[in-house]
């Protein structure tokens, strides 16, 4: 296996060295690609030192040296990669020694396009811990509930399986064949500054054959600190609803361009509409909600059915 590990770097001078070192421990890691995204701290200097010290570490910036977000940075990393497999790692996270154990076995089968695993959590600051626990229920493993592969992964991530699969796994625990990405033409939605990873994973599960790997113990660790963007958005805030609408709208647009089954298209459409209504205010919100219920009562059974009823 020749694995390219892609690390977007923004405001991570304290953490990126550990992330890089955790990737370099594996012989299979052919290269570590750092995409520095105009960090306000000294991350660029740290990245330069890492690239000078280790020939497997390659440093890039966007052509205009500007800030474009994690999605655009990962897209640039994919473009610059030369490995047969691609793995992702956030600059404030790190791999554990068992990171590619499942991949060594499952990628012997040519039908497997990607393997995903479980990750753990490390609290790097008290404030980061408080923000994380206020938004995320499980402080331990981020994983799915049972082993699955193929179309069941796609359905499970959307909450369409009879047994609750779990709604996400993270990029830190995903490895995918480069050829599968090239064949699907899939990239990260650069218009999404948050949830672009979930958007990418769901679409990937549709276009590629994914298989669960190690789901009962961590293969990587995510670091939670004061600057984690996702934990700063309360589930009950208008900002959360707006970000969720942008996420589901991205899936909606994509669903109209692909041959998804009618039930899945309907599910995505209802989720999008629910969050679209959630950001409305006053009388117009009530009127639009009643019209949406009349058109399709199942909108009241969406996963996020309570958010759009809030004023």
TrEMBL record:
It holds the Pfam family Glycos_transf_2. InterPro entries: Glyco_trans_2-like, Nucleotide-diphossugar_trans. CDD domains: Glyco_tranf_GTA_type (cd00761). It comes from Chryseobacterium angstadtii. GO terms for molecular function: hexosyltransferase activity. Residues 4-116 form the Glycosyltransferase 2-like domain. This is Capsular biosynthesis protein CpsI.
